[in-house]
Amino acid sequence: MIKNTYLKEVLEKVRKRDGNEVEFLQTVEEVFKSLEVVVDRHPEYQQMGLLERLTEPERSITFRISWVDDNGQVQVNRGFRVQWNGAIGPYKGGLRFHPTMNLSIAKFLAFEQTFKNSLTGLPIGGGKGGSDFDPRGRSDGEIMRFCQAFMTELYRHIGPDVDVPAGDIGVGAREIGYLYGQYKRIKGVWENGVLTGKGLAYGGSLIRPEATGYGAVYYANEMFKHENVDIKNLTFALSGFGNVTWGSAGKIAELGGKVITISGPDGYVHDPDGVSTPEKIDYLAVMRSSGRDKAEDYAVKFGLPFHAGQKPWAVKADVVMPCATQNEIGLDEAKVIVANGTKYIVEVSNMPCRNEAIDYFQKNGLIVAPSKAVNAGGVATSALEMSQNSMRYSWSAEEVDLKLKVIMKNIHDESAKAAADYGLGYDLVAGANIAGFKKVAEAMIAEGII
User: Fold this and answer.
1) What does pTM read for this prediction?
2) Short-list 203, 167, 197, CA closest to 391
3) Is residue 291's pLDDT more than 90?
C-alpha cells in the first residue's frame, strides 16, 4: 500500500532486521501508512536518515532480575527498558509486569509512546519497559522483593531528567511505592520526580489513577461534538475492568452515557442497566485490587449472566472502547462490530485493534479514534505530576482535571487539523500519527545527527 520509495526501503529494513518482533513491526507499519503524505513533501528526511533513526531505539536495555519467593526459592525474571527517543524531553513511559512481556512488546510500546507523548504538547520523550514477572497470586512480600530487585538494576538508567517510568499493566501505586523506596535507598536522594503514579503521601498527583480513562472520554466527547452527537444518547461497550475501564466508566456515567459491558481474561458481563451507579463503578476498583483478575465477580455481585471465555464485542453498542490490552480486536471481531451498527471505535488500550481491523472499520465508515491520542491523558497527567514534583507543589483535583481536559481537546483538534491539512478529511488515525511525528521530526532535525 505504501508507494513512497524511501518509506518502502526503511520498512523493508525493519522487516528484515526485526521481523520476529511482530508487535513492533505492526506499529511501524501502521504509522508509516499515515506518513506517506508527509514524507512526499519532505525529501530532506531521507538525507537526514530520519526514519532509519526513528525506527531504532536510542537505547534498549535487557537485564536479569533475581529474587527470593516466600518459600525461600530463587526466582529469575527478565527486565526491559527501551528508551526510544529523547528529542523533545526525558524518556517517559510505563512499566508493565506481565508474563507475556518481551522485547517486541517493549519496543512497540516505546515507539507508540514517542508519538503519544509528542501529542500532549509537553516536553517528554518516549520510553517503555517492564518484566515477564506475574504479580497475580504473589504476596505483598514477594512483590516488594521483586520490585526491589528490579530497581536495583534499573536505577542506573533512569532519573528525573533522564528517564521517568510509570505504571502500566501489573504495576499500580503499590508497585511504584516499592520501586521508589528502593531507588531512594540506593541513590540516597529525594528524587521523587523519577517515577510517576506515586501515592499522594510522597508526591503523587490527584486524578492520576483516573487520568487515562477520563482523558479517553474527554477525547471521545470532542469527536462526538465534531459529529454533532450527544454523549447522553450513546451506549458504550468496554473491555477490561482495571483502572482504565474504571476511569472511563466513571466519566461516561458522569456525562450521561451508558457503559453496558466489562470483561476480563475469563469472559465478559453484559449489564443492560449500565455500569452507572457509584456502587457499580466503585466495585470495579475492588475487583482490580483483589488480584483475582475475574470479571465474573461483577456478574455474581450484581446478579447478571456471565459469558465465560468470550469477548464483549457481540453486544450491540454505539461506541466500542477496548480498554484491556493489545490486539484484542482482529478482523473477525471487526466484522461483528460493524454488523452490530457501531459508529465509533475509541482505542483506549495500547494498539487494541489489529491493522486489518482498523482498515475494515474505516472502509465501512466507522470513525476510529487511535490509542496514541485517546490514552494520552495518562502520560499527560504523569507529566503534570513531574511538574508538581519539580515545583515542590501540589495542584487541586479540579486544577489537574481542567488541565487534562484542555490537553485532550488540543490533541483531538491538532489531530483533526493535521489530517485536514494533508487532504485526508476527518481521519483521526492518520492525523494523530502526522501531528505526533512532525514535532519529533522537527526536534531531531534541529539537534543534528545524533
Assistant:
1) 0.96
2) 203
3) no
